[in-house]
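The following record pairs a protein chain with its ligand, pyridoxal-5'-phosphate.
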Amino acid sequence: MADDNLKRGLSTRAVHAGEEIDPTTGAVSVPIYQTAPFGFPTAQALEDAFLRPKGEYIYSRMGNPTVRALEEKVTALEGGGNSLAAASGMAAISTVMFTLLRPGARLVAYRDLYGGSSGFFSRILEPWGVEVIWVEVGSEQGDGAVLREALGEGADLLYLESPTNPTLKVVDIARAVGFARESGAKVVVDSTFATPILQRPLELGADIAVHSLTKYLGGHGDTTGGVITGSTDLIAEIRTRLIDLGGIMDPMAAFLLLRGMKTLKVRVERACENALEIARFLEARPDVRRVNYPGLESSPFHETAGGQMAAFGGMLSFEVDGDLAAAHRVVDSLKLIKIVPSLGSVETTLLLPAVSSHYKFSREEREAMGVPDGLIRLSVGIEEIEDILADLETGLAAL
Ligand code: PLP
């Protein structure tokens, strides 16, 4: 069962993964190598670094020791051969797509994606000449016949997120990978909502896992970053493209993200425990119409999530019994929970998708997507559960 797995989790490797005591100075935290270029003692050393490279650092856009430490830590957490850090989640995603796709390529994507990703596909990739085919998550059709048909013969890439934003749908990743393999497509999974503590897409057969480090891996809402993990060969190819495009991570960001990741496992464990209690609390209330959380036994995604995740995550959404004005009243009455258009931090935060991530869609379109006016998305933090529940109780009383 998912909860037992969470307790076993990743063992203490999650804390120390990829971090050694600094061999030169003995520093116990990774030093911030805040430098753009690296100097060479002789002309011969310079020539060797360029012509006969042995992993020397030359220029921070091409590699930096603090950033490299972060990449090693993520590889240890996520599995796979190697990782590559980028300036943001979107820098990571766009660099992967520009490496794996060409004009004329066919990309199949699940419709429930972070708006920045779906916008990038339609605003940049489609005009570039990539054919984008959208499929639905969750329906038997989306996971089966329609997905197979969309992939057809010779699709180049299947792109998905699981769990999804903001309706917390769960894609059966291994099954989707099976269909992609039949058509020869590679599979990229945005695993940001799950973190490597709960889900490791490469073990489920995916070729690439991406994360916005800005969310859970950083965990404190103070740093932007992204990361890509895959086989050594694929990451080498994507690294070359990232060096060309330039969306690299800064050493200071790498340091802050490394520090955040030391507590990833305990933060995620606590957020999962809190989220399950909150989901049960909300589900029992008559003034809440619907709760989207794969940890609830009533969720249509409960079984799939239990099969591929160690626990059900810290994200959930719920629909209050009322219109947009009612949702505003609830949100504006909260004292502890902050209104923040991000997620994965130690504090519990929320947003109203209808007036933020999904404002461009009409009400009808949003309702069809499961995003009505009264939907509130919660990113559950690590506070005392009694405090979060009391705050929600106060908010719902405003209905
Ligand atoms: N993927 C998901 C699931 C996200 O929620 C986000 C941002 O909200 C991103 C990717 C993009 O990450 P970033 O803001 O770090 O570019």
